[in-house]
Fold this sequence. Notes:
With 465 residues, the protein is an alpha+beta fold. Among the domains are: 16-58, no CATH class; 80-175, no CATH class; 183-358, 2-Layer Sandwich (Nucleotidyltransferase, domain 5), CATH 3.30.420.10. It contains 14 helices and 14 strands. The protein has a six-stranded mixed sheet, with helices on both faces. A four-stranded antiparallel sheet has the order 1-2-3-6.
Amino acid sequence: MFIDDGIAITPDLNNNKYRAIQAMLLAIHTICRPVESNEQIKREDCLSLGKLEEEGQMSECFVLLGWLINTRALTMALPPKKYNKRIRDLQQIISTKRVSYALLETIIGRLNHAATACPIMRYFLSRICLVMINWDISKKSKKVERYLSSQVLEDFQLWKDCFLPKISRSLSLNLITYRRPSFLCWSDACSTGLGGFDYQGYAWGFQIPEKFKCCMQNKNYCLEFLASIISIWQAILYERTNPEECFLSLGDNTSAIGWQHKASVDPDKNLPLFLAFCKFAKILLTSNTCIYSQHIPGTSNNIADALSRRFDLSDKSLSSFICSLHPSQVPTSFRIFPVHPVINFWMTSWLQKCYEMKGLQKIQKKKSVESGGTGQNKQTQSALPMTFGSRSSYLISESKLSAPLQQHFPEENFLDRTRNAWLLQQYKRPWQNWVRSLGQTWGTTPHMDMEATPCTHSLPDSSRV
């Protein structure tokens, strides 16, 4: 047994660095028995002094599991040797426009490893992986080459020109480290429009033109995903975000929430959804931001629901309607802003592509029905007394005053209340079955002590690395 990669991390305080130098040696001798002089079976020592001298020294920059880690700048990057090797392989495929199954399998594994630093890049591996899935290797050898389509070659070109150069430079660990969200937004959609707002009170609404409503009847799941994209895109274009922002997208559609982390769709079967995936990934990559998502019940998403449906009201009337009906769910600075022109143009282009794919539906002619003879009227008047559907109230006195409206929450309380709801979901321990080593006792994980709920007010607004 050999230990290929090892790491000892310690803050540079007091004599910690001298203790950390011995940490790897102690770990190896704890796991592996040292070699004795009278060994019956010859074996090598698990401790390689040459490798330890080359890679086991304390340093602020080191290579771990194929990644160049900088502990002072808190960044990671693809080492130059691995970067040059991947660029050569992609250049070979792009120039020849064909690939063998063995090389394709290797390339997909390497690109998947490269996407560890930026998981959103995996959205552009769908078409490449479909080539390998649909490859029938039962009759031919893995070394036989096949020509690739222009769409797959475009994805390879994108990896070569954009993605691999991006991860070859330093990437902040804040974009891949689990942390507390710093920007919250809600969204919703229906067949007539999309809408959403964020914790700062900036709301928006996009009404689908009448021309494109016919092709949006069965695409509500896709519109929900687009609504979550626009909520983030609006904040980025209007420059209301900070560098390395961490978004928390809240919605009431489980499919749209799941697609923000993992997407595997065949573009030949669902091209509009695939185009939305690509745009979503490009927005996060160019802005250097990350995203979390969480599902909320539809009854708790009233504001975004109204923004995506009530286009019969003006922006001012809709704002007054929302603030008066749901004052506890919006901040005091709530206001509806127009959709950014860039988003408006892209949405119109996306709807046009959906409309062209569906095509113009043929107008069905109604079949003429020949009129027959007039039948006899056999209905007679009922002798029963008439019963009215409503009756007058028997109450002697009624209150003419309505209940007082709920007050707006302050900005800080509104944001903390929403963040705390998200944090409580993270504190819940998942139920998992467990079994002892002898296989005699089955059970479930115990409950957490709800009385010892962690204090969330002590956490900063953005817990970064």
